[in-house]
Design brief:
Layout: H1 2-34, H2 44-76, H3 84-93, H4 97-114, H5 123-136, H6 147-173, H7 180-215, H8 219-224, H9 226-253, H10 260-281
């Protein structure tokens, strides 16, 4: 059972990370395309982002399939996890079947559209597909309890992706041998992104607070249960991410190039936050 739980948590981490990165790709592509000073540039940042978007879609599909297999193992035992009959029961016949099918389908659509996106076209269609992925993700697990919880979870995932996903995309794009060709574009994107990051972080905080109170309900449960303790760990990591982002925002306001090292630290902390979230959603709330 422990191995099965680890499989589900690990697959969920990769699925969340893929979706959040896909949202970040949509944001970076939109901001880079909207920059009028960028019309004659070689779009190095956009091209790197498109490559990452393709990877995110493919990883999302694979992670969701692995997660479905893990769920099948939890239902029928590890020996039957790979059985087509068990998978059909989970993905088609169970009350969660629609959620599985929609998530895998939307991740697949994002992966396919990712191959059609270019620095100057297809970005809006890609963004709509990613938004759909965020909407159907809460159809499984805690978020499926009611319509308002689905809506709140979807909003929380979308704004979290717009904030942390963008940070993760920039961190990846600011690595490699040709980073100098992207750093100026990244600086402009960060400058344009900062107000939206502030808004996204604020909405993420409010929606996360509403969900936390819904599932925890008291200070005692927050500090005295495993669910509450994981929630506190997530909050600490998010505050650390916001602190790093504030420093780079100040650099952008002064006209300085962003600190690639600081962006990578933010991205590392974002992965920690996603890992805690994956464990959180597999933990029984009070």
């Amino acid at each position: 059972m422990g191995e099965q739980l680890s499989l589900e948590i690990g697959a969920k981490l990769f699925a969340y990370a893929a979706m959040v990165v896909a949202v970040g790709c949509a944001v970076v592509l939109t901001l880079a395309r909207a920059d009028p000073t960028n019309e004659m540039r070689p779009y190095e940042l956009s091209r790197a982002t498109i490559r990452l978007a393709r990877v995110a879609g493919a990883v999302g599909v694979f992670a969701l399939l692995v997660r479905a297999i893990g769920h099948a193992g939890a239902v029928a035992g590890p020996a039957n996890a790979w059985s087509l009959e068990t998978l059909r029961l989970v993905i088609v016949e169970s009350r969660w079947g629609g959620g599985w099918r929609w998530q895998i389908a939307l991740a697949g659509v994002v992966a396919v559209i990712g191959w059609r996106v270019r620095p100057t076209r297809g970005i809006a269609v890609f963004a709509v597909a990613v938004a759909g992925w965020c909407i159907v993700t809460p159809w499984l697990g805690h978020g499926a309890s009611s319509l308002w919880q689905r809506a709140t979870h979807a909003l929380h995932l979308g704004v979290t992706g717009a904030w942390l996903g963008t940070v993760m995309v920039l961190a990846v794009c600011l690595t490699g041998t040709d980073v100098r060709e992207r750093i100026e574009d990244a600086g402009r994107v960060i400058e344009r992104f900062s107000p939206w990051a502030l808004l996204s972080a604020g909405v993420a905080g409010v929606s996360g607070g509403v969900l936390a109170w819904t599932y925890v309900g008291s200070v005692e449960a927050l500090v005295g249960t495993r669910y509450g303790q994981l929630l506190v760990a997530k909050l600490v990591s998010v505050v650390a991410i916001a602190s790093c982002g504030f420093v780079n925002w100040q650099r952008a306001r002064r006209g300085e190039v962003p600190s690639a090292r600081l962006v990578r630290i933010e991205a590392g902390l974002a992965v920690v936050a996603l890992a805690v979230t994956a464990a959180l959603t597999e933990t029984e709330h009070p």
